[in-house]
Amino acid sequence: MAGVSVRYGSPKQPVTALEGVDLRIRAGEFAVLVGPSGCGKTSLLRVVAGFERPASGRARVRGALPRPGAGAGVVFQQPRLFPWRTVGGNLAFALARAGVPRADRPARIAGLLERVGLAETAGRRTWELSGGQQQRVALARALAAEPELLLMDEPFAALDALTRERLQEEVRALAGRLGTTVLFVTHSAEEAVLLGSRVLVMAAGPGRVVAELPVGLAREPDTDVSALRASPEFARLRGRLAGIMRG
């Protein structure tokens, strides 16, 4: 995107969520947006997803105008599953929207659930699952169309610490295996450093990118993430990012 601005409210009293944002995400990159509440992280994500049109500037995804569902999977802070459908039914809906033939859907559903560690749950109701399991289903649904781009808006914020750590590790490994481009929003310096190959720091008033931090930590799918969390380099990067965020 180049020079992107987003405004809300009436023409007489507009509220500027983003102002003049320039941003380029490379294919296969795990980019993380951090910053205080109200700095426009979600607005930026919505522009990339095609849910918002910028008031000015230009946004492109692989050279085309962003459109909802056009090659991007989205995972929100809340799972937003269909409670009247089973786990498999939620995934079947996403596969149907992606044009997958009906005969191919059962195998694809089994593969998606295996990928997120929820094998044998296709017949269960979503309300029978824990919060962490529901968020895994939401991730599987976002991956159903095999998107080249995955957009994640604070997907683990409402989870307990242990579940959050487990899903962080799973998403990190999954992105590495699939080579998916990821744009991830968080408030947490620790989460940003653990997940991101590059961290973009935003400031409010109005929202803009003010700094970036490359993260050179090991990203192979079989990386020992527990050892990574305990490493001096992880602590150094987390401290450096926290300092940037404090300004």
Account of the 3D structure:
This protein has helices spanning 41-49, 87-97, 105-115, 131-143, 161-178, 189-195, 225-229, 232-246, and strands spanning 2-9, 14-21, 30-34, 56-58, 72-75, 149-153, 181-185, 198-203, 208-214. The protein is of the alpha/beta class and 247 residues long. The strands form two sheets. It has a six-stranded mixed sheet, with helices on both faces. Strands 2-1-4 form a three-stranded antiparallel sheet, with no helix packed on it. Helix 5 (161-178) links the parallel strand 6 (149-153) and strand 7. Helix 2 packs parallel to helix 4 (131-143). The two termini are 25 Å apart. Keywords: ATP-binding, Nucleotide-binding, Transport.
Question: Could you list the spans in which at least 5 consecutive residues all have pLDDT below 50?
Answer: none
CATH fold description of the largest domain: Rossmann fold
How far apart the termini lie comes to 25 Å
Biggest sheet strand line-up: 5-6-7-3-8-9
Structural class estimated from helices and strands: alpha/beta
Mean pLDDT: 91
Radius of gyration from CA coordinates: 18 Å
Please state the second-level CATH architecture of the largest domain: 3-Layer(aba) Sandwich
Number of individual domains = 2
Shape: globular
Helix percentage range: 25-40%
InterPro entries: AAA+_ATPase, ABC_transporter-like_ATP-bd, ABC_transporter-like_CS, ABC_transporter_ATP-bind, P-loop_NTPase
Pfam family, one: ABC_tran
Domain ABC transporter: 1-229
Protein name: ABC transporter ATP-binding protein
